[in-house]
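EI: anyone free to look at a 847-residue chain?
SC: sure, send it
EI:
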Amino acid sequence: MPDAEKMFPVFIEDEMKKSYLDYSMSMITSRALPDVRDGVKPVHRRVLYGMHDSGMQHNKPTKKCANVVGHVMAKYHPHGDHPIYETLVRMAQDFSLRYPMVEGQGNFGSIDGDPPAAYRYTECRMTRLAEEMLADIDKETVDFVSNYDDTSREPSVLPAKLPFLLINGSTGIAVGMATNMAPHNLGEVVDAVVATIDNPEIELPELIKLVPGPDFPTGGLIYGRGGIVDAYRTGRGRVVMRARAAIEQLPGDREQIVITEIPYMVNKATMLQRAGELIRDKVIEGVSLLRDESDRKGLRIVVGIKKGAYAEIVLNKLYKYTQLQSTFGINNLALVGLRPRLLTLKEIIELFIEHRFSVVTRRAEHDLRKARERAHLLEGLKIAVDNIDEVVSLIKTSASTDEAHGRLRQRFSLSDAQAKAILDMRLQRLTGLEREKIESELRELVELIRSLEALLESREQRMNVIKEELLELKRRYGDPRRTEIVEAESDVELEDMIADEDMVVTMTHEGYVKRCSVSSYRSQGRGGRGIKGMGSREGDFVQTLFVASAHTHILFFTNTGRCYRLKVYLIPEAPRNSRGRPIVNLLQLRPEESIVTFLTVKDFDSPFYIVAATARGVINKQPLKLYANVRRDGINAFNLDERDRVISCRLTDGSSDIILGTRKGQAVRFHESATRELGRNTRGMKGVSLRGDDHVVSMIAVREEDEVLTITENGYGKRTPVKEYRKTNRGGFGIINIKCTERNGEVVALKGIGEETDVMLITRNGIIIRSDAQSISVVGRNTQGVRVMNLNKEDHVIDIALCAKETVVEDAESEQEGDSADETPEDPASRPGNAEEPAPPNDDDTV
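SC: here you go
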């Protein structure tokens, strides 16, 4: 039974608190956090010193990793073989450390997360750079402490010629705190340290010019500098990393994305698996294949893009939903005097310089002491050589070594060490050549002692030594930066890489849609034959065309009264003469639906209205804000009567006049205030009364100063001032808009136009002509109009669209297509982009 006098009561909560604090401090100071001086944690320090102790330098043969693990575990790190080997493996991986400290032979894992082979199979040795961490460690440059069982000694810190905390970074989780330091480029860090030595008052902006940001071993991109500046200024910051990817063109108008670098610490296999799941679940669309082509030459991931899909959009979605874009949270926490401290960039550099200054000072003191000791011995040997006959006689007449030792000291006033050196001297040192060597070595040592004494007397000289050593290491080990830093917004949108330019969007009768640049269509004179706008197969023809910017929202209204939403850049871009892509691949249309009208919108908070008209003359007015949130599968916009269909929708500001035009040439004009505001999925009210089989073909919103452009199916058209259309009551039969005859045909469409406007006409056979709307004659309502487009036999105009005025000269391609010679003369100032374009006409306003 224990002695009762040695027992005392302890509260369990007090014991738990004390024990946990002891454990926490042990984890913080002896396990998880790096030392700011040499930049490594204790286990890394012990592995490197153990390899140095075992003679595993870069120029020696590799040895089994089991040798290192066993040696380090037995003498320095008693925490098991797994953490020791894990540390050894990571220091050998070129995708984990910017500058590996171990040269491995065998399987040391992969960027796919494959585990390394067991340590009985792999071999290793130190790299040349790792030896720079331990250079001069045998010259008393750092303090040594007892190991865990007090049977040997280990360094408390390594001499470290370079600031490895910045160069390779560090990661560790302690108790209640953690560190996550990013790696940097060796040459940039050396320049920053040298600049700080030259100017201790250097400011952070100057340092950032020298060290612009982290340099990760896997390369990639860093988007934005805000997180870098925060980390360097405060010790904490978030860095957005992106994979390096390029879009390659393939034959047949196909594209592929090639990824050659991925963000730091990202498992490639896991990332690819996640990307595959997103592609399978249709979260990322437009991908035809995902293939890993990485080999010993480097990383290469190929993402095939389906024909008609947009590679930049697919890439942005990969960035958004996968680890091709990830964040590195910098947390510069390190031990300073065994105390954890959050450090800025300048503080890390200053503390390294302070450590390196101490190492250089202690090395100089060690070298000076050794030089003085050697010089002292050589002085004794010189005395002996100068008096060799007497020294030999004295030794021969001595009865013992001790007697000879004492007599030599007394006769020549030697020290104990000098007398011993003389007694240990070989006879070969008595030759003339050896005598000269002694004298030469003594002179060199005297000069060395003088230089070391001067070095220790001058702080500036020691700083110069640090600078020279750093610059030499930069020359030997420096390499180009791998990670590119680019300017970027803090938030990444899908359209970040999409130019916001005007695009022509066309759709065929069978529902094929595409977009191409407005500049693809050139202006011609009135009566021209046009150019080939879209190829179509038998039975298909271009039905609708409109112009909008790439970032604009498109509201698609169907014949059944439903609404869908899509951005212009999400529509595949295609050449002018191609068919495009089926709209059903972009929108989740129902079987009985077809797109009949489009609206382009940029701001849904604007005080605008959507005014819709149906073929049977019903009109419906709704606030635009009701369409701010349109589901992927669409929403119900209008409630239609049986056998009725939507034919047109317009954006209005509440102050416009509405004109409804019918196929037979009638028109009714009334102010939109005559139509009350309704909610979604409502029927509306009567807009016009119809006779016989007549039906509404167009609805336009106009002002008094505008003109009404009317185009008929046989290529005739006219401009008529709005003021000639007298206002009537909503729901009436209206007045004559145009006289329809066999010559000009029935009405195709009405448009409200202003000045500086071009009009595009599209025929059933896919021919498109772009003409100045002002070239079309202004005539009264009850007329047939003038010829606007010459049509081939049995061809008919099926739709028109308005766009901003632009003159485009004919190119060689259009000449080969047999275009009319009646064209604008070539003028460089008239080319797209050389002249400022006016705002779009009010019939195609974008909110």
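EI: The longest helix spans residues 345-386.
SC: 👍
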